[in-house]
Design brief:
With 192 residues, this protein is of the alpha/beta class. The chain has a single domain, classed as Peptidyl-tRNA hydrolase (Rossmann fold). It has 6 helices and 9 strands; from the N terminus they run E-H-E-E-E-E-E-H-E-E-H-E-H-H-H. The strands form 2 sheets. It has a 7-stranded mixed β-sheet, with helices on both faces. Strand 2 and strand 3 form a beta hairpin. The longest helix has 24 residues. It is globular. The mean pLDDT is 94. Monomer.
Length: 192
């Protein structure tokens, strides 16, 4: 299951904090499916991710975006995992990351939440920090700007132009992760 984190509604749609949701929405659109409301308080869709050798359809993946606020993401993620029978080690969470330069993509398994309320909520709700993460760099706030103000602001005009590269890079990282596993995907993604 691939979950993109963000906050619901048009007020937050262009925020830095919503870049994870933007990637999942792009993956759904590229697959020709619409994310639909699910009883787990999320929008979700099942897709086949990419193609395998011999032009066979790729593995089944559930795409999801919680419809709750970021700090309540865990409830919907936990409910979706139960509904679709997804173990924690097959959960991929896509999220914004302050500690990575803007535009960079990094992959990891487990570890701390780095103050990210969406990750903290998920870890608490599913009872483990051991799940895959696709970390999309948004950089640090300028000067003395408060972190929460920074993540809840829309991307700058310059950053918006770069989103045309960051969002597809995030989607490609997910596909590599699902198809090739963490080690191979890290070697390919982190080398860029």
């Amino acid at each position: 299951m691939v979950v993109g984190l963000g906050n619901p509604g048009p007020r937050y749609a262009g925020n830095r904090h919503n870049v994870g949701a933007m990637v999942v929405e792009r993956m759904a659109a590229d697959s020709g499916v619409a994310l639909r409301a699910h009883k787990a308080r999320a929008a979700a869709a099942e897709i086949r991710l990419g193609t395998l050798p011999g032009e066979l359809p790729g593995p089944k993946v559930v795409l999801a975006v919680p419809s709750t606020y970021m700090n309540e993401s865990g409830g919907p993620v936990s409910a979706l995992m139960k509904f679709f029978k997804i173990p924690a080690e097959r959960l991929v969470v896509i999220h914004d990351e302050l500690d990575i330069d803007f535009g960079a993509v990094r992959l990891k398994f487990g570890g701390g939440e780095g103050g990210h309320n969406g990750l903290r909520s998920i870890s608490k709700s599913i009872g483990t920090k051991d799940y895959l993460r696709v970390r999309l760099g948004i950089g640090r706030p300028p000067g003395r700007m408060d972190v929460s103000d920074f993540v809840l602001k829309d991307f700058s005009a310059t950053e918006r132009r770069e989103l045309d590269f960051l969002i597809p890079s995030g989607a490609e990282a997910v596909e590599l992760l699902v198809h090739r596993g963490l080690d191979d995907a890290q070697n390919l993604v982190h080398a860029r």
